[in-house]
Amino acid sequence: MVKPLYENPWYKALVLTLAPWIAGAALAQADTPSRELIQRGEAVSIAGDCAACHSEPGRPAYSGGHPIKSPLGTIYSTNITPSTDAGIGDYSLEQFSDALRRGVRADGRQLYPAMPYTAYAKMTDEDIEALYAYFMHGVEPASEAPPETELPFPFNLRFSMKAWNLLFLDSDPFEPDPERSEQWNRGAYLVQGATHCGTCHTPRNALMAEKSSQALAGGSLGTWYAPDITDDPETGIGGWSRRELVDYLRTGHSGNGATAAGPMLEAIDLSFSRMPEEDIEAIAVYLLPEAESEAPAEPASAERDAQTNIGQLIDDDTPAALDDITPGERVYRDQCAACHAPGGQGLNGLPALAGHPVLDKPNADNVAMAILEGVWPEHRQGMLGFADELGDQQIADVTNHLMSEFGQSDVRIDTARVAELRAGGAPSSLLMLARVGMGVAGIVVVVLLGVWLSRRRRRRTR
Ligand code: HEC
Ligand code: HEC
Ligand code: HEC
Fold first, then answer.
1. 41: Cβ contacts below 8 Å, ≥ 6 apart
2. Whose CA is nearest to atom 5 of ligand 2?
3. How far is 262 from 93, CA to CA, in rounded Å?
């Protein structure tokens, strides 16, 4: 009698060996998103600049550990590689979406808004899905755990962020404006969402939330100052041409003499310079006044021309007798003139300081920060910081020399502010409050919450 095939031991052995492999391959097929989706996710991660905070030199990509100094203490970014023990390998798409758009971790606890989920809340489901595919399948798992974040009481109580979110997290999805062009809407979506310009450029209230009524009107990051980028022609960038803004965002240099330093330069190097040019054009169309946006971007004006023009405006004054000059001018001649030229008009492609837009800001923090930290562009010559060479008084003196002589500005900086910038910024008034004792800040949150709820109720009953 012939036995049925499935009773043949050889056949059984073969099936038993192959079955898991076949099943595994079928499962993997169902699980692995298309290459195209992963690549789209990578592009979203570049626009969102995830690397700025989640990658740290000397550690594997995206394994976290980047210290973010907040006025409340240091917050460490976490490992967002697909490692299942140290990273987010176990996150479902929904948990990932909640972390990005609602500020809730997989374990249900709240994230600190040092992670810009208030901006990412505007991202579409499609972008979140692509981003998830990239982090699950396009990033190498790394098992290094970052240091733990320890904030002082009451900020160590993550649930207090729930009240904060209730007050300040606008989780409505992005609404395109049907009256505007597709390009304008693309720009609005990117600025409000992934590229999170407001995280730096919008001033914050006493509870460190962005003041939505003053979107992009300029805010201090504690040290660097992110200037007004509204379309106001006086205080903002309303006077910039589209080409100037596009060049600035793609290269950190602009025909109007602006150069980027500090966190803006980092965002340009890691993110904006790597985004598709259409997206940067869309951002410029959204940010600039309508009339300017309608005009097509004129071809890049040679930046050197602009600098020479500025240079010609300043007469290269013959050096005065040495004891005649101010302390600020002396520092400038000793330390700066070799690169920026005695009259501030720039040399050999190095930037002009005369008429530089950094000198027409409401404070001189960025000038002092550039002198303290230096300027470090990825693909050009940079400038070493002078933190070790120059004392607070000398930095204040040379900063004020630049403000008055090259910027015709009345804004000045004092040595106390330079010392504060050197130390990493002013301590938060919130922290002072918290230190006073029984979580006064927690009480403030509760009181504000009450005010907000009653206002909302009133609005409803009206
Ligand atoms: C400005 C800095 C910053 C940027 C930019 C940023 N993150 Fe974060 N992210 C953080 C910090 C800080 C934390 C941890 C916050 C905490 O401990 O409460 C975090 C936490 C997370 C978490 C939660 C992980 C966990 O611990 O369970 C995820 C997921 C995440 N980020 C993904 C992203 C992605 C994706 C991007 C880019 C689209 C991004 N982040 C951009 C700072 C940032
Ligand atoms: C991480 C913080 C940060 C983010 C995010 C950021 N900026 Fe900035 N930005 C700054 C800082 C700081 C400066 C000042 C740089 C300097 O003085 O060199 C600046 C300068 C600028 C300037 C020059 C303004 C002037 O008057 O000189 C423009 C324009 C600008 N940013 C546009 C943007 C846009 C558009 C986005 C989003 C697509 C953005 N920034 C995102 C921090 C940021
Ligand atoms: C070795 C040459 C060199 C020296 C010396 C030097 N700088 Fe610079 N500086 C640069 C370069 C290069 C940049 C801009 C890099 C870029 O964006 O391409 C720059 C940029 C700047 C900026 C613009 C920062 C911003 O916000 O964008 C300021 C302000 C400045 N320098 C001031 C000074 C002062 C003040 C001194 C003297 C204390 C000084 N520099 C000395 C090379 C130099």
1. 129, 130, 131, 132, 133, 134, 135, 138
2. 197
3. 34
Mean pLDDT of 143-160: 86
Residue 365 beta carbon below 6 angstroms from any ligand 1 atom? no
Give the atom of ligand 3 at the shortest distance from the alpha carbon of 367.
29
CA distance 330 to 334: 6
Pocket test for ligand 2, best of 54, 229, 273, 287 (most atoms within 8 A of CB): 229
Pocket of ligand 2 (CB under 6 A): 191, 195-197, 199-201, 224, 226-227, 229, 237, 245, 248-249, 258, 260-264, 267, 283, 287, 357-358, 366
Mutate to test the pocket of ligand 1, among 74, 80, 122, 210 (most ligand atoms within 8 A of CB): 80
Give me the percent of the chain exceeding a pLDDT of 70.
78
Mutate to test the pocket of ligand 3, among 265, 310, 383 (most ligand atoms within 8 A of CB): 383
pLDDT digits (tens, 9 = 90+) for 407-457: 999 999 999 999 999 998 876 555 554 444 444 455 556 656 655 665 655
Other CB atoms within 10 A of residue 12 CB: 12
Using the 8-state DSSP alphabet, how is residue 336 labeled?
A: I
pLDDT tens digits, 221-245: 989 999 999 999 999 999 999 999 9
How far apart, in whole angstroms, are the C-alpha atoms of residue 439 and residue 102?
Answer: 25
Is 50 exceeded by the pLDDT of residue 42? yes
Higher pLDDT, 1 or 72: 72
Q: Find the 264 Cα to ligand 2 centroid distance in Å.
A: 5
Q: Which residues contact 438 (CB under 8 A, 6 or more apart)?
A: none
Question: What's the mean per-residue pLDDT of the chain?
Answer: 85
Assigned architecture for domain 305-427: Orthogonal Bundle (1.10)
Domain boundaries, the chain: 182-200+218-301, 305-427, 430-461
Q: Please compute the mean of the pLDDT values over residues 3-10 and round it to a whole number.
A: 61
Q: Is the pLDDT of residue 295 over 90?
A: no
Give tens-digit pLDDT for 165-199: 988 999 889 999 999 999 999 999 999 999 999 99
Query: Taking CA 415 as the corner, what is the angle to CA 314 and CA 315, rounded to the nearest 5 degrees?
Result: 5
Distance 346 CA to ligand 3 centre (A): 9
Q: Dig out the tokens for 79 from the structure.
A: 């490992």
